[in-house]
Structures are given as structure tokens and as C-alpha cells.
């Protein structure tokens, strides 16, 4: 199967599940839930949920395993979406466009957007711990929820975002950039893969290999994000291009130039694929996804 | 034991646990963690964690049960604190004072405060699902985490806050005020009690009684909050008194007057104590807490 067809199919799977597993915009909180759903369904590559499902499928292709991972995949997308809503706020990156559409606060106001983000984050944990959505053991659900909480919080994504903001317009060592990337973007991508592994019953060795794969594609993903921000147009990206430079953010191109940065992304993708050498053809989607992350244009 | 002594002792227990179970403000995210810790340790009645521990103690006074509930109690306080930080933001209630001290965004900026809230919320779920902090079964931990997520998210606290904001300066039926109170304040208080019950191994009947108790004191708590906001000074409250009127918020006194409101709070407290009639002297702290909620002055 081609990566394009695969991504279209998988996005549909994720979006069908998101529709089913998000509260409906009715009742007293209708407007609030509408704000959550707006950002959740405004588009997006669905990379984290797809990685989670692909990691699970690399271990087991059973329908039960796949179905068990759908709430996990949706929770990851809820957390990613919450982080975008809060990052776009006037007090943070102050972006008016995201995925070619108005950002959440442009439509629902700042208070509405803050609360929509809060609720998407909280709903992720509701989904992850819902005993009715899954035949996973309580121990598996708990383990998955814990790694996702750790990856998203003060020692992961939220910590990384705060460090990113604190470093705007400042000169800092490359190690700090690595810390920002690893925590702000890498942690959730790695844990998407790890959660898929745990949910599909991977062995300790398989989980370790998949975590290594996740670390490398998380790195590649962020490097390519930096590249695209530096080299694409706003129309191509669907969000403000060149905004890193405007915000005085240090990025890979600032340290290594465009070509040096491209080489590093390529190395990370190759390392990711090498981590999968013990896996059979069920891991083919993960290999294709690694290549896609390198070649994507938005 | 007198309620005053009891509360001082219990607050110390909660604060010792919070100190132990919150990340230290060191490393690359030190400033971010400092913002979390500032609001967490700036004071507060610690009502939700104390209710959780008291509900557990009404079932079992064993040291193990108590120790198992400490991370749950801390998680509840993290969620409560996150909600205060976000409620105080300029885009929401725009409050400069909380517990007699500057609000989070006054010290750490809006972006810092939004992220500190996000991380406190996420850290709550990290604590709740940490297998090392507890000898509870995975099923118990999962059940507790799920009710807390449900009570805090779009169908609970965050939904209630968004409805509260949407209703500012509007005339709406008393049923809407009840929905706001039940979701914004009541849900987390009830689930604090319910979580304590589950963690201590309560029977279905005991849990049902404790949930009924929780519903009634949640109601009493919010009614008394409305009363205090209408009748106290800013110095007494440690936050802006009369702010409900300023924000055009409908409250119990607006519907029932001061005396009518007081009577309703009293009725709720009596109903809460009645719900405990099947419990022995281990539930005495819960009974005292019900009275305290009615008589508190801040």
C-alpha cells in the first residue's frame, strides 16, 4: 500500500473514532463542547493517533487489539489539540490561523479557548480510563495513562512549551534546543508509539525497540517542522510560516543551516527504521511513516 | 477533637504529601514548576483532599488505606488549584488577588499561568496513575482516575466554568444556576468523597451514602461561597469580595435573599449528615466537616 492511501484510510479511522468518542454538543455545555469539537475536527495530520495504531498493528493485527487502541489514539489527539489551542492563544504565540482556519480563540474568545483546551486535556484522561471502551486489563490501561500523563505534563510537553517561550529572543546552547524538542514534541510522539505497544501486548524487547523508533521519529518530526517553518509559505503550511524567526525562536536551521538540518532529519529517520529491524512486515506502516515524516511538506 | 484542631492537622498532612508528591523546581523546567508550586502552596483550605481522606477514614482507619489515598488527595488539590489559576486569568475573572496573595499570572505572566494550570491538571493524572505511590489495585486506581476525570472535564468543572462565564450579566432560570453549581463546584467535591470511598474499599451501599453526603455538602459549599461573596469584606475573604455582583453573576442570594440562602445551606448540611446515619464514629470528621462548611467565614 502507498503511504498516501494508508494515511487517508487511517485518518478516517481516527476521525470516525473521535466522532464516536467525544461528547456531543448538546445540553447545557453545548457551546463549550462545540469549541472542543471545532479544533478537534478542523483538520490535522492525526500523526500521533496513527503512530499509536501502527505501533499496535506491528505487534498484533487482531481486531480486538485495534479496537482497544482507538480510545488511546483519540486521547492522544485530544491532548495534541489542547496543546495547539493553548499555544495559539494571544498570551502565547498569538496565532490567528491554524490548518488554514481561524484558531480557537478567534471564534470562541480567549476564555472559551482556554476552557476548550482544558476540557480536551481532561477528556483524554476520561477516555484513557473508561472501562467501557476497552477490553484492556486495568493494569494496561493504567500503564498507558501514566506514560501519557508523564509525557504531557510539567516534565514533558507543557514543561517544553514553557521553556520554549522562556527562550524566545535569547541565545542558548544547542542542548537547550534539544531539551525543548524532546519535551515539547518528542515526548508525546514517543509515548504514542509506546502506548500502542503496551496496548497490543508487546514484549519488553519489542517495547524498547519501539520506544527507540519513537524517539528518532519524534526528533525527525521536530527537525522537519523547523525546516518547513523556515522554507515554506503560509499557504502551504496552513499556519503562519516564518513565525519561528518572528518570535525569535532558535531552531535547527539556526544551528546547522538548511542542508545540515535536512541531513540530521534524514539520519534520525534512518535510525528509526533501523530500530525496527527485528520486526516483520506488520511494521511496514511504521517504516513508511518514518519516511513520510522526512518527506512531508506541511 | 475540635474541628479547628482537626483541620490544622489534616492541612499539614495534605501539605506534607503535596511537598513530597510534586516535582521539585530544579532542572530545565524549574521556573515552570515554581509557578505550579507557587499556587499550590500559597494557602488554601484543602477541603477537597481533606474530604477525600475523611471519607476513606470513615470506612477504614488503617495506615495503608490512608497512605493510598494521599496521592488521590493531592491530585484533587492539583486540579482545584489549576482551576483557580485559570479562573483568575485576565480572559476569565481577571482577579489580582487570591488567598490574600497575587494571583499566578500577576507573578508568572499569562502564558506562565496558563501552562502552570495545564501542568497541575496533567500532574494530577500522573499522580493518580502512578503505580509506585499506592498499593491500590489497578482497577481501584483506574476507577478513581475515571470519576475524577469525568468530574473535572467538559461535563463537570470545566463545562460549569464555561457556562458560568456565558451566563454573566444575563437573566437565566434557577435551574441553570443549579447546573453551574453542580458542575463547577459540586462535581469535584462529590468525587473527592467518592474517590476516598473507593480507595478505602467501601461497599456499594456505603459508597452510595457517601456520594449523597458529597452532593449535599457540595451544594452547601457553593451556597456559602455565594453568601460570603455577598456579605464579607475582601480582607476577610482574601479575594475580591462582591466580585459576583461586579461580574453580573447570578447567585443564591439573588434568588432567595440572604436569610433564604442561609436556610438552604443549613438544609443541605443537615441532609449531608442524615446521609451518614448508617456510619459509626469513624465518620465523625465528615459530620464536623459538614458543620464547618456551613459556619466557615472564608
Briefly say what this structure is.
Chain A has 298 residues and is mainly α. Chain A has 13 helices and 2 strands.
Give structural attributes:
homodimer, 298 residues, mainly alpha, Farnesyl Diphosphate Synthase, two-stranded antiparallel ribbon, 13 helices, 2 strands
What can you see in these coordinates?
2 copies of one chain form a homodimer. With 298 residues, chain A is mainly α. Chain A has a single domain (3-295), classed as Farnesyl Diphosphate Synthase. In chain A, 72% of the residues lie in helices and 1% in strands. The first copy, chain A, contains 13 helices and 2 strands, in the order ααααββααααααααα. Chain A has helices spanning 3-21, 30-40, 47-59, 63-88, 104-128, 138-152, 157-166, 174-199, 204-231, 234-237, 243-246, 252-274, 284-295, and strands spanning 97-98, 101-102. In chain A, strands 1-2 form a two-stranded antiparallel ribbon. The longest helix of chain A has 28 residues, at 204-231. Chain A is globular, with a radius of gyration of 18 Å. The model of chain A has no long low-confidence stretch (mean pLDDT 94). At the A-B interface, α2, α5, α6, α7 and α8 of A face α2, α5, α6, α7 and α8 of B.
Query: Would you tell me the structural class of the helices and strands of chain A?
Result: mainly alpha
This entry's quaternary arrangement is: homodimer
Tally the helices of chain A.
13
Share of residues in helices of chain A: over 70%
Architecture of chain A, according to CATH? Orthogonal Bundle
Q: Strands of the largest sheet of chain A, in order across it?
A: 1-2
CATH superfamily of chain A: Farnesyl Diphosphate Synthase
CATH class descriptor name of chain A: Mainly Alpha
Rg over alpha carbons of chain A? 18 Å
The greatest interface between two protein chains, and residues involved on each side, is: A-B, 55 and 55 residues
- Main pleated-sheet profile of chain A: 2 strands, antiparallel
Total count of strands of chain A: 2
Amino acid at each position: 500500500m502507498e503511504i498516501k492511501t494508508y494515511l487517508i484510510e487511517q485518518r478516517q479511522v481516527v476521525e470516525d473514532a473521535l466522532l464516536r468518542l467525544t461528547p456531543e454538543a448538546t445540553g447545557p455545555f453545548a457551546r463549550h463542547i462545540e469549541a472542543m469539537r471545532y479544533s478537534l475536527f478542523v483538520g490535522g495530520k492525526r500523526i500521533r493517533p496513527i503512530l499509536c495504531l501502527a505501533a499496535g498493528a506491528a505487534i498484533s493485527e487482531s481486531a480486538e487489539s485495534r479496537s482497544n487502541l482507538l480510545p488511546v489514539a483519540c486521547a492522544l489527539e485530544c491532548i495534541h489539540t489542547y496543546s495547539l489551542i493553548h499555544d495559539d492563544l494571544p498570551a502565547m504565540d498569538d496565532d490567528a490561523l491554524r490548518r488554514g482556519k481561524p484558531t480557537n480563540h478567534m471564534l470562541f474568545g480567549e476564555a472559551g479557548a482556554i476552557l476548550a483546551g482544558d476540557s480536551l486535556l481532561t477528556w483524554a484522561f476520561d477516555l484513557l480510563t473508561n472501562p467501557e471502551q476497552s477490553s484492556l486489563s486495568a493494569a494496561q490501561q493504567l500503564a498507558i495513562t501514566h506514560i501519557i500523563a508523564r509525557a504531557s505534563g510539567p516534565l514533558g510537553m507543557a514543561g517544553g512549551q514553557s521553556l520554549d517561550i522562556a527562550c524566545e529572543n535569547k541565545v542558548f546552547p544547542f542542548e537547550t534546543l534539544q531539551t525543548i524538542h524532546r519535551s515539547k514534541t518528542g515526548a508525546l510522539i514517543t509515548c504514542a508509539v509506546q502506548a500502542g505497544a503496551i496496548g497490543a501486548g508487546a514484549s519488553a524487547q519489542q517495547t524498547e525497540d519501539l520506544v527507540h523508533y519513537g524517539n528518532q521519529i519524534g526528533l525527525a518530526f521536530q527537525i522537519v517542522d523547523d525546516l518547513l517553518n523556515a522554507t515554506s509559505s503560509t499557504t502551504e503550511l496552513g499556519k503562519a510560516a516564518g513565525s519561528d524567526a518572528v518570535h525569535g525562536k532558535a531552531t535547527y536551521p539556526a544551528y546547522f543551516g538548511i542542508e545540515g538540518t535536512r541531513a540530521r532529519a534524514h539520519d534520525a529517520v534512518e535510525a528509526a527504521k533501523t530500530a525496527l529491524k527485528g520486526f516483520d512486515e506488520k511494521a511496514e506502516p511504521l517504516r513508511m511513516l518514518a519516511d513520510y515524516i522526512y518527506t512531508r511538506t506541511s
